[in-house]
Task: structure prediction
Amino acid sequence: MTAHFLGDDIISIDAPDATEAQSRASALRSLGVFREVAPGLDSLAVSFDPLVLEGAEALRLIDSVMKRPATQAAVEPTAHILRVRYGGADGPDLESVCATLAVEQDAFIESHCTTEHQVDMIGFTPGFAYLSGVPTDWPVPRLASPRERVDAGSVGVIAGYTGLYAMPGPGGWPIIGRTDAALFDRYKDQPFLIQPGDRVRFEAV
Result:
């Protein structure tokens, strides 16, 4: 893995895949010296306080973690079961998604629910989770016109990924359903339920 500075207080680290990025991110967080460690699909970003930790020392600590065998950095992921109302007002795009894929709605829902999904990344809004596990031959495109507001708990799909909206906000993902699970709770020490590396199964209600 290679690391390079993106600024005075952020270091980017290449990773071969999302699983490795999550594993290394967990190990780096356990050091307790970085402001934030954010894994992506093929990299992770580490931010630090340059008034507390010099850049050279941050690189040394990162290098020490990167040199460990991956099994030492791995942590047991949390498994979640999320109950989802598919279609209707909660999944306004389910019908068009199934038409695009030329599959029956019941078959689509069954496939989505029988798959174990992995949280590969958190982005583009706070707590928004990208989950791999959707068949890669489901070429679902983004909406031509993004919505100004998507409700919290909404479940979307795009080209090989499921997206979970932890908070309300704008979005361009086709929405297939919605869960009442508390994906965000401001009063908890860890306000977001879903974390990188977690496993998720959906259950139709």
